[in-house]
Amino acid sequence: MKRFSLFLSLLFLCVCFLSSCIKGGNIQEFSTFGVLKYSEKGLFTPVLETPVGIFYSPVINSLMGREEMIIDHCYAVYIQLDHDLPENSSTAYDAYGYQTVTIKAYEEVPRYNLEYLPEIDLTTILPAEVPVSKGFETGDYVSDYLFMLHYINIQDDWSLNWKLSCNSSKMYTEEDGKRYYNLYLRATVNKEGDKTVKVEKGFANAYRLYSFLTSVAVSEKTLLGGNYVENSSKFNLRFNYVSQIDTTSQTLTWKHDQLDAYIAPFIPKLVK
Questions:
Q1: Is the pLDDT of residue 177 over 90?
Q2: pLDDT at 268
Q3: Would the pLDDT of 160 be above 60?
Q4: Does the bond joining 265 to the residue before it have cis omega, within 30 degrees of 0?
Q5: How far is CA 78 from CA 12, 114, 122, 175, 222, in A?
Q6: Where are the domains positioned within the chain?
Q7: Which of 142, 179, 187, 272 is the most exposed place for a label (fewest CB within 10 A)?
Q8: Which residues of 144-182 are buried (b: 16+ CB within 10 A; e: fewer)?
Q9: Which residues of 199-212 are buried (b: 16+ CB within 10 A; e: fewer)?
Q10: Nearest CA to 100 among 48, 139, 62?
Q11: DSSP reduced 3-state for 263
């Protein structure tokens, strides 16, 4: 089994995110994001919890033994699922709570915690900061993590640090009768490489947002009062990011993408 580069995996995920192809018989191959957990039914069997199901692969145990896969870490995976295998029967699924797959390629996705700040500085350029060309391309929420794809025009061998923050004293703003819960994304260069030509490079990140989304849900239920409807009421997340940096005038240009989601359970949907 080979590992693929994160850039190539993101390219594939961008084009075929959560798509699948039939390989013959009743076999599917598809890419997705997942968090490595222990199965609640399968006697602490390590499984990948994904937006499209819970999956086990025998190779996970050996990868954990080499510390190439770690519990509670996040991964982009390309997997093959054979629905005709006995271990994928409905009886087996009911007993163990997962399907057995072949992991054909994988890459760990960096994890970040949300930073709570008393106020957000929207004017100061951070040291080694770079602008983001596309802030939030896709989104899926799995096991307390929101997986997002970002794009930056940068040298291919440079590495970045990412920071996602919120205003702890003012979680939302109001526009045209709607409440927008704001998150702010910044990117800085962690390490420069040898290349000089810039390309539009994709980055997948996983942001732990459980506490923030719980606070949003409590806020919205309170504000909606009698208008709140379980599994129907939605809220709006706004992802703000620096799209341009003018080093001459020392100014930042901000853009935003939006996502709406059901309050409970949290099911995100990007708004283009």
A1: no
A2: 60
A3: yes
A4: yes
A5: 9, 28, 38, 41, 41
A6: 6-109, 111-271
A7: 272
A8: bbbbbbbbbebeeebebebbbbbbeeebbeeeeeebbbb
A9: eebbbbbbbbbeeb
A10: 48
A11: coil
More confident residue, 61 or 265: 61
- Inter-residue contact 13 to 204 (CB < 8 Å): yes
User: Would you call 66 helix, strand, or coil by DSSP?
Assistant: coil
Task: Dig out the tokens for 261 from the structure.
Answer: 């989601």
Selection from 144, 136, 1 nearest residue 78 by Cα: 1
Q: Write down the residue that tokens 């806020």 correspond to.
A: 219
Tokens 């609640």 correspond to what residue? 40
Listed as own residue / partner, the contacts of 5-10 with beta carbons closer than 8 Å and 24 or more positions apart are: 5/107, 6/76, 6/107, 6/203, 6/204, 7/156, 7/201, 7/202, 9/76, 9/78, 9/105, 9/107, 9/204, 10/76, 10/149, 10/202, 10/203, 10/204
| pLDDT of res. 231 | 67
Taken in order 79, 80, 86, 88, is the CA torsion positive or negative? positive
| Per-residue pLDDT at 58 | 93
Give per-residue pLDDT as tens, 215-255: 888 888 888 888 877 767 778 889 999 999 999 999 999 99
Please check whether residue 108 is in contact with residue 147, taking contact to mean a CB–CB distance below 8 angstroms: no
As to burial, measured by CB atoms within 10 angstroms (0-12 exposed, 13-18 middle, 19+ buried), residue 12 is: middle
Q: Which CATH class is domain 111-271?
A: mainly beta
d(CA 74, CA 8): 17
The answer to whether 88 touches 82, Cβ cutoff 8 Å, is yes
Mean pLDDT of 80-89: 94
- Looking at the domain that runs over 6-109, which CATH code has it been given? 2.40.50
Give this prediction's pTM: 0.86
Residues recorded for the chain? 272
Residue with tokens 């970045």: 160
In this structure, what DSSP letter does residue 70 have? -
